[in-house]
Amino acid sequence: QVQLVESGGGLVQPGGSLRLSCAASRSIFSINTMGWFRQAPGKEREFVAAISRSGGSINYADSVKGRFTISRDNAKNTMYLQMNSLKPEDTAVYYCAAKWVTSRVQSVDYDYWGQGTQVTVSS
Length: 123
Hints:
Blueprint lengths: L3 E4 L2 E3 L5 E7 L8 E7 L6 E7 L5 E3 L7 E6 L4 E6 L8 E8 L12 E2 L3 E5 L2
């Protein structure tokens, strides 16, 4: 069992930056895939980014490429999402997730989920 806790959300103006963190309750060395998803009001949860165990394989949704950077520090049992050039359409609850396998990284069939952190982009 893995418990995930997100932090770092908040209110930011368009063009601003935020860094989200996802802390795991146990070692993440053996967790093959960790990812970030988001869900806006009235919309389905959508894929944002995913990273492999070594960090050698990274995937991004087209909507965040070039603006968001995913990373993980296995020694600290923590994953991060650096979000730059934020837009109002990035407003959502952001969730971190983990799965044991390396397949279907953009689908929602992850094994573990955090409780979410709100990100609001507004002037």
